[in-house]
Request: fold
Amino acid sequence: MITMRSQRRRRTLWWLAGGALCILLLLTLGPAMADSTAPLPRVSIGIDAARKPEDVSLTLQVLGLLTILSLAPAIVMMMTSFTRIVIVLGFTRSAIGTQQIPPNSVLTGLALFLTFFTMQPTLAQIHREALQPYLERKIPSQAALQRAEGPIRTFMFRQTRPRDLSLFVSLSRLPRPSTQADVPTYVVVPAFVVSELKTAFTMGFIIFLPFLVVDLVVSIILMSMGMMMLPPVLISLPFKILLFVMVDGWHLIVRSLALSFG
Reply:
């Protein structure tokens, strides 16, 4: 009986709350709906016939810009220092053993800002040689893209290992290039990414070593004390965090990452 009464009371309260909400909406929107002169927005999407050749060119430019914006994350990750930085930061978190601390959003944000920092000379050169003349209408968009491609290619060539570059040149079946200008960009990008992965994994292995030593020492101590049922990670985690804080680990890692692109 008590349960039935409580259910009836809940239903009554829900009906009263719903009725009050409807009355409030009618009082708020009623005058606006009654006023026939109130302007209402109209949204329309359509395709009209082009009247001038410039209209077609402008439409194609807008479509190209939207395509570039959709591919911007891939461009940032594959053609800048973002790949190496985010992998090394992920290795650091895994080496410490703090599951989701720092969270992925923090690591990604830190990787993005470090990417902007390390790419600042390249971005400044692109702004000076390509973007600024284009905004001043001194060069067309095609020339601006070609000028912007130069500093990016220089950065990628500087970080790419010759072995990886020769691998993709041979896979593309191109004639042996004599200069860097003879290597197309679609060959440079995958070679650069592979080199970045190798460098990032090498740095991650070095970061793992001291924390691995801590885990081994804690495991040996627990086994010597006969505490085999106690997980070693539970004991080693505070010591690894203490070690990382004492040596100012984030400072060392960020410094190493910034100097690795020198």
Remarks:
- The two ends are 78 Å apart (CA to CA).
- The mean pLDDT is 76.
